[in-house]
């Protein structure tokens, strides 16, 4: 093991020296394009403070992208909101606009590349982190690519060694029938659209799927297919370089200075939307059982059942569940009454006040640093503070044994073939897909009907409430509560 680390460390040093010695590298490949394929890490030395600030700025932008994807119903609406909400907080999105001075442009491109690579380092340490980061980066790239004028796209292709150009009018005319029939377009539409020609080797996936017209080693592409190809290469580059970076993380020599900063960037979850109770959204403690059975994801309904059965929650569950309840609109007074009524079935009120009341007020920002705490995202629940055997917090798709997960899903009346599918997804760490599938089949919607994956328990809750049209929750009387807890 030590030998392994030594040889990795000397390889890193060799790589660093090679990068420092290379004369050709500039930040955005050649410095001429607004966009980068991020194939070369920057070699400039920067302070850790700048490193962290630039990375934090980019992370804010990626979170915003995720939030907008969840919020907007169509891609057109998403693009409009990106223009309004992302441009003011993330300058690289404004590079295509005229009026950016040359010096500013260089600085923005530099920060774009540094921010991207800083976050690669921060997010390479688990498959879930990597997947989240790559998804948001690809969305950002696609959006920026679509804003670039044709001349800028051509220079981006030249910088990144894509052999691509648009067909001239006479070239199109010579193949007009093939092009129109291949893409289901009228000849007029073909004449009026840009059709791109690219080396077939750059488009193997589309060629394999017979989705493009191929002739003499070239593929002929509409704009959407062109983006697909660029994005495939970007995704592959990011995935492979992050897998490599992950191997090196254990041996980098900045354990004390760099690692805590990377940790800070990913800590606290990265679900884009921060869930706090929206104005006018409220729930009383008497409605929680009804809401749990109708609207809660498995991670939260499991804690609710545990609480009713055992009249107690340990710290991890109190925090995961307490912040979730707060974000669905349970007031501090109601939360206090809810936990007090349940806990004092086992302990006296004095003990409750001394040991637990502070903790509840703290979650609502009334004690300590008086901070507003948001509900945990799935990433936070999955990646931080894993439950031990007698804890009930966490995510069942990640933390339950296969047998336990099976019985939870059976009790949830999920069909056995769907249970098998969810278990298979959980085994390959696709917890978001498993949970989204759970949402779809348990609500009687078709598989794949959700337009985006579940990444937050409160997103699950809101989607469920929306799907039933804000269906009224039943108030639970004490009799009904005791029936529920005995099930
Ligand atoms: S994926 Fe998220 S919402 Fe679903 S059960 Fe796990 S933590 Fe809860």
TrEMBL record:
[4Fe-4S] cluster binds at residues 299, 378, 395, 435. Keywords: 4Fe-4S, DNA replication, DNA-binding, Iron, Iron-sulfur, Metal-binding, Primosome. GO terms for biological process: DNA replication initiation; DNA replication, synthesis of primer. Binds 1 [4Fe-4S] cluster. One of its GO terms (molecular function) is metal ion binding. It comes from the Eukaryota. Belongs to the eukaryotic-type primase large subunit family. This is DNA primase large subunit.
């Amino acid at each position: 093991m030590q030998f392994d680390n030594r040889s990795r460390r000397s390889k890193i040093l060799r790589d660093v020296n090679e990068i420092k010695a290379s004369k050709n590298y500039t930040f955005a490949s050649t410095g001429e394009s607004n966009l980068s394929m991020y194939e070369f890490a920057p070699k400039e030395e920067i302070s850790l403070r700048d490193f962290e600030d630039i990375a934090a700025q980019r992370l804010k932008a990626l979170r915003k992208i995720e939030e907008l994807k969840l919020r907007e119903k169509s891609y057109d609406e998403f693009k409009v909101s990106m223009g309004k909400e992302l441009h003011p907080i993330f300058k690289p999105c404004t590079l295509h606009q005229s009026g950016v001075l040359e010096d500013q442009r260089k600085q923005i491109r530099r920060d774009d590349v540094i921010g991207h690579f800083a976050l690669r380092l921060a997010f390479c340490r688990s498959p879930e982190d990597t997947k989240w980061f790559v998804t948001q980066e690809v969305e950002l790239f696609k959006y920026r690519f679509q804003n670039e004028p044709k001349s800028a796209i051509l220079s981006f292709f030249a910088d990144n060694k894509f052999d691509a150009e648009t067909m001239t009018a006479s070239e199109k005319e010579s193949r007009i029938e093939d092009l129109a029939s291949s893409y289901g377009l009228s000849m007029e539409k073909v004449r009026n659209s840009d059709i791109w020609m690219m080396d077939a080797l750059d488009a193997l996936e589309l060629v394999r799927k017979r989705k493009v017209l191929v002739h003499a080693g070239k593929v002929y592409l509409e704009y959407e297919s062109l983006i697909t190809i660029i994005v495939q290469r970007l995704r592959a580059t990011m995935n492979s370089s992050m897998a490599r970076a992950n191997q090196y993380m254990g041996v980098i020599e900045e354990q004390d200075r760099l690692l805590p900063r990377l940790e800070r960037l990913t800590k606290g979850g990265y679900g884009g939307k921060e869930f706090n109770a929206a104005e006018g959204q409220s729930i009383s403690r008497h409605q929680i059982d009804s809401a749990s059975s109708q609207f809660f994801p498995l991670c939260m309904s499991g804690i609710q059942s545990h609480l009713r059965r055992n009249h107690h929650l340990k710290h991890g569950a109190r925090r995961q569940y307490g912040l979730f309840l707060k974000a669905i609109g349970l007031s501090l007074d109601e939360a206090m009454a809810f936990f007090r009524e349940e806990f004092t079935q086992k302990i006296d009120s004095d003990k409750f006040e001394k040991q637990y009341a502070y903790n509840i007020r703290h979650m609502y920002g009334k004690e300590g640093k008086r901070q507003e705490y948001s509900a945990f995202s799935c990433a936070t629940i999955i990646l931080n503070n894993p439950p031990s055997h007698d804890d009930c917090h966490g995510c069942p798709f990640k933390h339950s044994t296969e047998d336990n997960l099976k019985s939870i899903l059976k009790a949830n009346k999920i069909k056995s073939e769907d249970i098998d599918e969810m278990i298979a997804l959980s085994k390959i760490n696709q917890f978001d897909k498993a949970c989204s599938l759970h949402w779809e089949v348990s609500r009687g919607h078709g598989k794949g009907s959700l337009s985006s994956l579940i990444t937050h328990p409160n997103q699950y809750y809101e989607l469920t409430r929306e799907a039933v049209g804000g269906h009224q929750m039943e108030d639970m009387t004490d009799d009904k509560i005791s029936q529920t807890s005995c099930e």
